[in-house]
Amino acid sequence: MTATLTGSNDAWRARSLRAVWHPCTQMKAHGAPDGPQADSTPLIAIASAEGPWLVDVEGRRYLDGISSWWTNLFGHGHPAIRSALVDQLSRLDHTMLAGLTHAPVVELSERLAALTGLGHAFYASDGASATEIALKMSAHYWRNAGKPGKNRFVALQGGYHGETAGALGVTDIAIFREAYAPLVRLSTTVASPDARGARGGESAADVAHRAARDLGAWLAEHHEETAAFIVEPLVQCATGMAMHDPAYLREARALCSAFGVHLVVDEIAVGFGRTGTMFAHQQAGIRPDFICLSKGLTGGTLPLAAVLTTDAVYDAFYDDDAARGFLHSHSYTGNPLACRAALATLDIFERENVLAVNVERAGMVDGFLAPLHAHERVRNARRLGMIWAWDIVGAPANFARRYARHALDRGLLLRPIGATLYAMPPYVLEDDTARHLADGALAALEATLAEAEPSLFDDEKALP
Ligand SMILES: *Cc1c(COP(=O)(O)O)cnc(C)c1O
């Protein structure tokens, strides 16, 4: 039996609810498989996608305002990525990467090194695995360097680095972590430089400086047990698009160097142009010890992650003794198809001058979003590169879920995080699609606010 592109949404929904365990989802919120579609959390069966549009089995179109969980860069079904994949599939689908190599993985590694100034790319298939790899490499580096006691990590309050057991140790989002606390070796968290934390008269740089002092105080006491500090540079996305001043990254870099602790930048969400530069940490002019990449790496087509590091780290593993090597592996490490998709993605950045074009594009989108920025219930309207966010004051209970439904009703995929509405669209919006996004986002806000009396607190445990 093969999947068909048609059929009723209800039929696919029922089959999906019986057969599939959906991610980041309380399944009961979708209603019973044979019961009515849950009003507050509909399940939509997608049949196809093109550019910024997702099309359901009944032909309804939804603008992908969150790039399918921050993965898609240039729209769905991009012809250049598609033809690179078809070509690769006709040559080499997959091979293991221990004892063998291939052109796509070599070329991608060379190009990522040229773009970041770090190298020795190590591959996995998702972001959480990239986090695991960076943490394991860092601790193993210190062990090889004769300091096995340096095996703990420090992270930011509200940080998110994935949900496997190791990554959860540096993820500070209660709903993802609570149930698994006994399984996880929790890291210390230090103050977030979130610019919204400004106290009377403070600038974003002042907040950054204050947060860096917190990190510095912690490192001063604990650097001998600490392998690495991990940070999402410039935007802590999963906690609600918390943005900070690049000064924080400069101070963190200096502190990590002074105390002999690795700096890991998790560019999984913010890499590949989201914040306006190819990589977010570049806005601070710093060189980290590790970079984690995933999500946009393949333009949003196939799962792939990479960790890049310094020669110093690499050299500490290079030895006659096998046990001093980095023996981590995944079956699909360096999958040729995924690497080809990534190469095609990097080609688009070069050929289409994407970062410069995005400056213009973001300005155009901002024009359409002006009424939302100015809405009386919006606070902290903010944008960095191609990421927009708005905090809703007095948001009604279950704001995120209700808003998402009103957005779907208007042909728009937007999923707020708690009381923070955000948009992270593919880099292909034109006047018509930007207007659709802006008008739909505003109308969905009005509809959500009209539906319920505001409550003083948001009782929802929101899921991005
Ligand atoms: C999404 C994300 C991850 C985890 O990536 P997965 O592919 O979902 O495992 C890690 N870090 C950040 C900053 C992310 O946004």
From TrEMBL:
It comes from the Bacteria. One of its GO terms (cellular component) is cytoplasm. The keyword Cytoplasm applies. It catalyses: (8S)-8-amino-7-oxononanoate + S-adenosyl-L-methionine = S-adenosyl-4-methylsulfanyl-2-oxobutanoate + (7R,8S)-7,8-diammoniononanoate. The keyword Cytoplasm applies. It is found in: Cytoplasm. The modification N6-(pyridoxal phosphate)lysine is found at residue 295. Substrate binds at residues 69, 160, 295, 329, 415. This is Adenosylmethionine-8-amino-7-oxononanoate aminotransferase. It comes from Scleromatobacter humisilvae. The lineage of its organism: Bacteria, Pseudomonadati, Pseudomonadota, Betaproteobacteria, Burkholderiales. The gene is bioA.
